[in-house]
Amino acid sequence: ADYVEAWCVQQGIQFRKRVITECKRGVTARDVYEKLSREIRYAFYQEAVDQDGVQAVMFGHHQGDLQENVISNLMKRCQLLDIAGMAVEDVSSDVTIWRPLLPHVKDEILAFAHQYGVPYFKDTTPAWSTRGSMRNQLQPLLADMYGSGYLQNLSSLAEHSCQMSELVHVHILEPFLK
């Protein structure tokens, strides 16, 4: 956070930070930690939106994050209409979220960063974590079994899920609720 703060100051970008002390990973029960830390983060986002008078909070999720979400959400038995779990524009806990990098793969983003001197951090996801195991073990296995096209198939599944969700909401739920 210190590096990001210094870079923001150097660029004339307002920086906000909220340290979560109310719970601690590895000490607090995982489900309690996940729920409480999410509530704290989104309250912080809402506070920033309100104080700065902006429309949304912007996240850096990319196509790889979406593909990981699809795998994770399928394993967690998420509903068919929300397999992606994220969209380019979304509302979560009353906070509008923009994800402008979502249509792009990580290699495109890194190429842009290198070309224009934009600093970034290497992936620090622990290998022992669920995401780390997915990246280091499951995804290479899926690529060996199904070829690299499996990633695009996950992205297509996410897109179809979003389209079906919109169809159901616009043509079934909203007319019914009126």
TrEMBL record:
Domain of life of the organism encoding this protein: Eukaryota
Keywords tagged on the record: ATP-binding, Ligase, Nucleotide-binding, tRNA processing
Protein's GO biological process: tRNA processing
Reactions mediated catalytically: cytidine(34) in tRNA(Ile2) + L-lysine + ATP = lysidine(34) in tRNA(Ile2) + AMP + diphosphate + H(+)
Name of the protein: tRNA(Ile)-lysidine synthetase
PANTHER family in UniProt: TRNA(ILE)-LYSIDINE SYNTHASE-RELATED, TRNA(ILE)-LYSIDINE SYNTHETASE
Coiled-coil ranges from the UniProt annotation: none
InterPro entries documented for this protein: Rossmann-like_a/b/a_fold, TilS/TtcA_N, tRNA_Ile_lys_synt, tRNA_Ile_lys_synt_N
Ranges where the tRNA(Ile)-lysidine/2-thiocytidine synthase N-terminal domain occurs: 2-126
CDD domains named in the record: TilS_N (cd01992)
Matching Pfam families: ATP_bind_3
A GO MF label: ATP binding
Source species: Eutreptiella gymnastica
Documented EC number(s): 6.3.4.19
